Amino acid sequence: MKFTAQITVEVEADTFASAADHEREINKLYQEFRARYGECRLEIKQRRVQHATPAKTRTGRIRHTGNLAQYGT
User: Fold this and answer.
1) Is 22 exposed, middle or buried (0-12, 13-18, 19+ CB in 10 A)?
2) 59 and 52 in contact (C-beta within 8 Å)?
3) Where are the chain's structural domains?
4) Helix or strand or coil: residue 27?
């Protein structure tokens, strides 16, 4: 029988140095898993902060005019 186990760790890091420290620690723990379970893999992804959504009209629809912005020459 084969099965997959998945572990998700979400880390808040204020600086790149802090993020690097967390990544080193996670890699260290991963090596312990890999020593015991040869067929394992590690993925580290940076989650992007969601930007504000465009303003909506009273009907709840996003207003798109298709007009280009007017710039002075």
Assistant:
1) middle
2) no
3) 7-48
4) helix
